[in-house]
């Protein structure tokens, strides 16, 4: 079966493309996207640093800022400048995807595996390990190996965490991707995946390529009791479609368009998927690099019988 990447033309989401985020106006971008205070409630993240990482309470805030500033120098994402990652939104008790993931990962004799896509410092993996999930069944990936290294610096667990991390680009050409470390590490090995603040960075065509590769990451076959599961949060839109961000185009979804994308993936891969997605805010996200129709949305995608 031909890969989607054989037919779709997509810009490589490499570090050169990433620099287009600010559309060449770094000063203006910094004013909008870089904060000197943490605007969110982040007690859960503080607890993680105090109890999991053993950082003294009076040093936690300084450590958060120090690592954030190092990350900003690597890539100037809004979620870094605005400390969005410290919210650990998936652990607020309202994420059905995370609840299902934790139940499966902590079940007696569980063989489920969990992959964090575009994980930044893979803070979700650290929270799962803190909550008692066997870290040997946790995997993380990001475009930047530097972010993975910052994760070890932030959480001080280089010698104790058993998780597997692989840096790589989800959009490199198929000939390179098939033999990549990422493909070797994940293909056919994952049962649960999490991707936060991820899909809204890409065009429809790029999302097709990424999602086809996600399907390859999942274990083969269909298990009705423990189906392949992908969940997270992303910026969607009340008026879905392609918009311009910085110097490139991205596609923001509502539930209908996200289901359409996964229907296309299903046709190409011989699989079937059910998407549920809803807005968790009534106003545009902060920071808002998109438009007034943008909303923060939570999604769950489950494999279903063909």
TrEMBL record:
The keyword Transferase applies. This is Methyltransferase domain-containing protein. One of its GO terms (molecular function) is transferase activity. It comes from the Eukaryota. Belongs to the class I-like SAM-binding methyltransferase superfamily. Keywords: S-adenosyl-L-methionine, Transferase. Pathway: Secondary metabolite biosynthesis. InterPro entries: Meroterpenoid_MTases, SAM-dependent_MTases_sf. The keyword Calcium does not apply.
